[in-house]
Amino acid sequence: MDMRTTISTALKEAMKAKDADRLSTLRLINAAIKDRDIAARTDGEEAQVSDDTVLAILGKMVKQRQESARAYEEGGRLELAEKEMNEIRIIEEYLPRQLDEVETDAAVAAAIAEVEATSIRDMGKVMAALKGKYTGQMDFGKVGPMVKAKLG
Fold first, then answer.
1. 26 contacts: CB under 8 Å, gap ≥ 6
2. How many angstroms separate the Cα of 137 from the Cα of each of 56, 77, 96, 97, 143?
3. So what's the pLDDT on residue 61?
4. Which domains are assigned to the chain?
5. What is the pLDDT of residue 45?
């Protein structure tokens, strides 16, 4: 079952269960996917975005909510921070398991070997290989410096 179907099914279940928080978050996810579909159509691409793109959207949504929760905590708005954290938990249910430090390190080493990277100039190739295989499974903001350290 593709991501879009999984999320639609979960949305219907949340409606039936009258789970307002879950329903709200799933509607946000659906809206973000539909926005990307519309943007893709205007760019002349396929009508529906792929599961990889949906995973990227979900990853971005988690990152946005983490930043918001941090800002709310710093501002003393703990109830809003908790709401953001609840949304993160719901969104993460649809993301694949995140790679741990050891697995990420091994994936970076494998990608460097795969593209035969020898210098920092090959960083783009390595990152592209990682994004192709591990979208939604690792934080590329943290992986970038790792790749740089190994190539530099």
1. 7, 10, 11, 14, 90
2. 10, 30, 6, 6, 11
3. 93
4. 3-92 (1.10.1510.10), 101-151 (1.10.10.410)
5. 65
